[in-house]
Design brief:
One of its GO terms (molecular function) is 1-acylglycerol-3-phosphate O-acyltransferase activity. Pathway: Phospholipid metabolism; CDP-diacylglycerol biosynthesis; CDP-diacylglycerol from sn-glycerol 3-phosphate: step 2/3; Lipid metabolism. Pfam families: Acyltransf_C, Acyltransferase. The chain has 408 residues and is of the alpha/beta class. The protein has 3 domains: 34 residues; 285 residues, Glycerol-3-phosphate (1)-acyltransferase (3-Layer(aba) Sandwich); 51 residues. It contains 13 helices and 8 strands. It has an 8-stranded mixed β-sheet with strand order 4-3-5-2-6-7-1-8, sandwiched between helices. The C terminus is likely disordered.
């Protein structure tokens, strides 16, 4: 055999082996992708979340006597318990879906993230924007203590709502006269909170839809405000109240704008199916002392901020990039470990029960298992449905009467 023939044969063999390895890898990835899209996997994820969440809610109830002895100790315990619930959802996004998040921010601000209390202003355009907000919190160690301004009805929802109650989340009824006192009191309670927290705030009040945008721009026109293309008109009263009650406790506002590459439209169902998204998050740190204290001036400042956010969003639409340096904070192994731990805790007894059901052969037992499984299936579908933009709040669909002071 000539040297050239030997070389050609070696090259063919090498190419063949590479193709075999690539085929095996593609086959495995395709199999994994298929498994992730199966509803049984979604059912298991939902079961783990619901059952472990209820167990953790029960543990949170047990902290009530602790609070009578030491309020701060009870708060610290609830931060850890709350993390056990919230990080499961983050783990689904980061480890199951594999979604990546790129952060655009000033390198001088980066070291402060997670080291100070802050108000985080998020745009509300996507079904999973709240989840990306939680991921942002997790990457900087404040997920368990993160806060949000949520509608009162959510306080009665098992798992998330009950967790929020023990984490002293601020609830509102969206009725200004009632919220003025209740929200202010809840915010004042956070002034002596024992650990750093981020207060996530969706100033638009509801998710962006074409119908809500049209109604919102009618309000903007009636008030003589510049129209926005990518945002709803911000609700300034809630922002002003939050800033005023947290002055001296919160150091800065993080102006945050979230987008997804390649015009992706992420959904919670897509995440459960294992679809990988690429999120870009722009964060600008604004010291709280730069925000006016008077309500009218604060409202004007917020409207100007949203005009800037709208321009930023428009630039991203054209270029697919945010301005400034970018980084990718690493995902944390602790979210995966927490998820696996609670999966073992609740799936082991489930496995024992299913084994008993199958071995018993009792028709009544099998029917009961089917009923429980069906109920769990309905619960999982309901949870997924609540994240859909089409199923969102009707808040913002109606026109708001003109307000002479420029707030809403």
């Amino acid at each position: 055999m000539t040297h050239n023939s030997w070389y050609v044969n070696k090259k063919i063999m090498f190419t063949f082996r590479v193709n075999v390895v690539f085929f095996r890898l593609s086959w495995r990835m395709g199999l994994l992708s298929t498994l992730k899209s199966l509803f049984i996997c979604h059912l298991i994820i939902g079961y783990v979340f619901l059952v472990s969440g209820l167990l953790i809610n029960l543990l949170q109830v047990c902290t009530l006597p602790v609070g009578l002895v030491s309020k701060q100790l009870a708060r610290r315990i609830n931060i850890r318990l709350g993390y056990c619930i919230a990080s499961q959802v983050v783990a689904v996004l980061e480890w199951w879906s594999g979604t990546e998040c790129t952060l655009y921010t000033d390198p001088k601000s980066y070291p402060l993230y997670g080291k100070e209390n802050a108000i985080v202003l998020l745009n509300h355009n996507f079904e999973i924007d709240f989840l990306c907000g939680w991921t942002f919190c997790e990457r900087f160690g404040v997920l368990g203590s993160s806060k949000v301004l949520a509608k009162q009805e959510l306080a009665y929802v098992p798992v998330i709502g009950w967790m929020w109650y023990f984490l002293e989340i601020v609830f509102c009824k969206r009725k200004w006269e009632e919220d003025r006192r209740l929200v202010a009191q809840s915010l004042q309670n956070l002034r002596d909170y024992p650990e750093n927290y981020w207060f996530l705030l969706f100033c638009e009040g509801t998710r962006f839809t074409p119908e809500k945008h049209q109604a919102s721009m009618q309000v903007a026109e009636s008030k003589g405000l510049p129209k926005l293309k990518y945002h709803l008109l911000p609700r300034t009263k809630g922002f002003w109240m939050t800033v005023q009650n947290l002055r001296g406790t919160v150091s800065a506002v993080y102006d945050s704008t979230l987008n997804f590459r390649d015009n992706e439209t992420p959904t919670m169902l897509g995440v459960l199916n294992g679809k990988k998204y690429h999120a870009d998050l722009y964060v600008r740190r604004i010291p709280l002392e730069l925000i006016p204290e008077e309500e009218k001036e604060c409202a004007a400042w917020l409207h100007k901020l949203y005009q800037e956010k709208d321009e930023l969003q428009g630039a991203y639409e054209k270029t697919g990039l945010f301005p400034g340096p970018k980084t990718s904070p690493p995902r944390q192994l602790r979210t995966l470990m927490n998820w696996l731990f609670w999966s073992c805790v609740v799936l082991y007894p489930l496995g024992l029960m299913l084994t008993h059901v199958i071995s018993s052969g009792s028709a009544l037992t099998i029917i009961a298992a089917v009923v429980v499984s069906s109920a769990a299936s309905v619960a999982v579908r309901w949870m997924i449905g609540q994240t859909e933009i089409g199923k969102g709040s009707k808040y913002g669909n109606r026109e708001v009467p003109p307000n002479t002071n420029g707030s809403s």
